[in-house]
């Protein structure tokens, strides 16, 4: 049985019983739907994107207050005199979304620059600010709030009762989950998944990570605002209390307890927390003999327990259980790659053309000169090796020529263009593909997914197209290209295996396949042979020789001298940040300065 069957079953069951449920249950389900909508945004933001926000309740407030103000303020009625009254809530929705997008964009631009625990602290700051703004603006009714909101109407049909509005709430929620599921299963989704742990890597694949983070932040805020809009028309009354920081923390509980990396975890978390809160608010005052928000204490303990026992939340446990009991099969990755169009190709530069030029590149860290006027170039159709003892400055130089860092002095030119101040993704766009000294893969994702991320810059479909599944032709082409590179690198057997379960040597090859998927003109390989067994090294050398013959320029940083000497056309040797030798392997091996630098080493 496919997991989708369960979802369809759930929706059908909900639809079938909806008309017969007691009013109290319907109202409870309405709230669960509304909370799920906010929590699903948090799953995207926090669970998938790695940005923790305590302030989502404030965005719910923006959505609720925008419609409350439009529907009740005399000034709004004056401006909207040409609009039929029944449409006011829809104007309120448009205003809420616009204001939320604007504020979220502004807040995101400032807050998302913060890293580590400063980011969640930042969200607490604006969560509080917006809450007090709602309470202190007289136009919004102060802490008393705004009452007498009209019900929603769709084509003249009133949605005054929770039973009617609940249908809209759940339809919106299911639509949102469908769209977000599609987004995650796309080129843009792969970029989003890289935000949490692989930003530097994603930039090197051509992803604008700052822009993706802001978009994710705005998306989560918009989902919260829609929830607020529906909430306002369900309650027909708004005041600041449901939008305070406590509730912001509760939304986070829902996402984390349910399973912050899973869209359905949001629904599970919202259901559990809402039901638990309901029960605890009844029982705790009776048990303790005094009233108060004791449920918050229980939530805190529950959160600790979940984080300790099931850090991924309860959804993966439930899904695992269902898989065993119901024998659910995750759908086989439909690789409709046969007949897929191919991605944009660009011709490789002719052999011998200068691809990369480092001109007197110097890098200083305070007093330490890590690179001292390093000159080198890499040409199409050659393997150039950069070697040197530990601490010689190879990684620093690698960072200079890949856009991770800028030289203090000197110049890097890629394809003839001066690259000073440009980010890694600009290097990728010009044709640079790279691997990392410490492997940077998305461990839980398959090899195919990881390699497909390498082709990111060759696709163009954006978020909306991905959400609406209008990206399938391009996605098939991206996956076909990824599969081609996987086969080329001899990884076909493990294409669907999670990258983290491969031995380190194979993970390095996955990184090469990922770099190749970007169709580079220049390949930078940082210690590609480290961790490889003898036979694996031989097949890597064979692959690199083939790539060189195809016209790629390859720069390798490597400690394995046998590997380097058998492969490289030219070698540059660094010591204490300075080039001490340059030439063919034979010339370098005969150089007295190199022999002295490697005295005791295995230069042979
Ligand atoms: N961000 C930094 N701040 C200060 N010093 C740094 C920084 N990065 C590197 N260094 C210093 O610069 C020098 C060169 O380091 P680098 O990592 O480039 O050498 P390497 O040749 O790559 O060494 P290895 O082979 O061990 O990786 C070292 O002395 C190192 O301590």
UniProtKB/TrEMBL annotation:
User: Membrane-crossing residues?
Assistant: 29-50, 57-81, 87-110, 154-180, 214-232, 252-275, 287-307
Looking up SUPFAM superfamilies in the UniProt record yields: P-loop containing nucleoside triphosphate hydrolases
InterPro entries documented for this protein: AAA+_ATPase, ABC_AA/LPS_Transport, ABC_transp_permease, ABC_transporter-like_ATP-bd, BCA_ABC_TP_C, LivM-like, P-loop_NTPase
Q: Name one GO cellular component term.
A: plasma membrane
**What are the UniProt keywords, alphabetically?**
ATP-binding, Cell membrane, Membrane, Nucleotide-binding, Transmembrane, Transmembrane helix, Transport
Q: Which Gene3D superfamilies does the protein's record reference?
A: P-loop containing nucleotide triphosphate hydrolases
Q: How does it sit in the membrane?
A: Multi-pass membrane protein
What Pfam family does this protein match (any one)?
BCA_ABC_TP_C
Task: Return the SMART domains for the record.
Answer: AAA
* Positions of the ABC transporter domain: 356-601
Signal peptide from the UniProt entry: none
**Matches recorded under PROSITE patterns:** ABC_TRANSPORTER_2
Its localization reads:
Cell membrane
GO function terms (MF aspect): ATP binding; ATP hydrolysis activity; branched-chain amino acid transmembrane transporter activity
The name on file for this protein is Branched-chain amino acid ABC transporter ATP-binding protein/permease
Species: Ottowia testudinis
């Amino acid at each position: 049985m496919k997991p989708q069957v369960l979802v369809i079953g759930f929706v059908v069951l909900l639809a079938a019983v909806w008309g017969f449920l007691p009013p109290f249950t319907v109202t409870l389900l309405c709230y669960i739907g509304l909370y799920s909508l906010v929590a699903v945004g948090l799953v995207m933001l926090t669970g998938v994107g790695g940005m923790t926000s305590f302030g989502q309740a404030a965005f719910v407030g923006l959505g609720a207050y925008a419609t409350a103000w439009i529907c009740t303020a005399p000034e709004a009625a004056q401006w909207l005199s040409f609009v039929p009254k029944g449409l006011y809530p829809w104007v309120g929705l448009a205003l809420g979304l616009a204001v939320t997008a604007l504020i979220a964009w502004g807040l995101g631009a400032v807050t998302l620059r913060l890293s580590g625990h400063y980011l969640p602290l930042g969200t607490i700051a604006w969560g509080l600010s917006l809450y007090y703004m709602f309470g202190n603006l007289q136009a919004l009714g102060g802490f008393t709030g705004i009452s007498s909101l009209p019900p929603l109407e769709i084509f003249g049909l009133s949605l005054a009762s929770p039973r009617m509005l609940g249908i809209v709430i759940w339809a919106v929620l299911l639509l949102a989950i469908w769209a977000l599921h599609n987004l995650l299963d796309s080129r843009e989704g792969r970029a989003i998944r890289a935000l949490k742990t692989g930003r530097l890597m994603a930039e090197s694949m051509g992803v604008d990570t700052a822009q993706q983070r802001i978009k994710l932040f705005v998306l989560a805020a918009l989902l919260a605002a829609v929830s607020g809009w529906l909430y306002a028309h369900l309650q027909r009354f708004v005041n600041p209390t449901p939008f305070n920081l406590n509730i912001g923390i509760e939304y986070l509980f829902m996402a984390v307890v349910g399973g912050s990396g899973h869209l359905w975890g949001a629904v599970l978390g919202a259901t559990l927390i809402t039901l638990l809160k309901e029960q605890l608010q009844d029982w705790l005052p009776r048990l303790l003999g005094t009233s108060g928000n004791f449920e918050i204490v229980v939530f805190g303990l529950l959160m600790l327990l979940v984080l300790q026992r099931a850090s991924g939340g309860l959804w993966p446990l439930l899904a695992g259980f269902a898989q065993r009991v119901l024998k659910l099969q995750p759908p086989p990755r439909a690789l409709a790659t046969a007949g897929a169009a191919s991605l944009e190709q660009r011709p490789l530069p002719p052999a011998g053309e200068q691809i990369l030029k480092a001109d007197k590149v110097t890098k200083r860290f305070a007093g330490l000169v890590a690179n001292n006027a390093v000159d080198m170039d890499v040409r199409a159709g050659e393997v150039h090796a950069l070697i040197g003892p530990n601490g010689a400055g190879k990684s620093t130089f690698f960072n200079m020529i890949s856009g991770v860092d800028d030289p203090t002095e000197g110049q890097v030119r890629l394809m003839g263009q001066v690259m000073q101040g440009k980010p890694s993704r600009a290097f990728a766009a010009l044709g640079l593909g790279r691997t990392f000294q410490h492997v940077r893969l998305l461990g839980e994702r398959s090899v195919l997914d990881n390699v497909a991320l390498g082709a990111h810059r060759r696709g163009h479909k954006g978020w909306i197209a991905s959400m609406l599944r209008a990206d399938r032709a391009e996605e098939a082409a991206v996956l076909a290209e990824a599969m081609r590179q996987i086969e080329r690198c001899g990884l076909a057997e493990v294409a669907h295996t999670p990258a983290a379960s491969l031995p380190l040597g194979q993970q390095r090859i996955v990184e090469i396949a990922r770099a190749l998927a970007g169709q580079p003109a220049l390949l930078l390989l940082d210690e590609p042979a480290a961790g490889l067994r003898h036979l694996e090294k031989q097949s890597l050398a064979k692959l690199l020789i083939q790539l060189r013959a195809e016209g790629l320029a390859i720069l390798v940083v490597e400690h394995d001298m046998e590997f380097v000497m058998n492969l490289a056309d030219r070698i540059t040797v660094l010591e204490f940040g300075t080039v001490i030798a340059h030439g063919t392997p034979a010339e370098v091996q005969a150089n007295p300065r190199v022999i002295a630098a490697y005295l005791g080493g295995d230069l042979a």
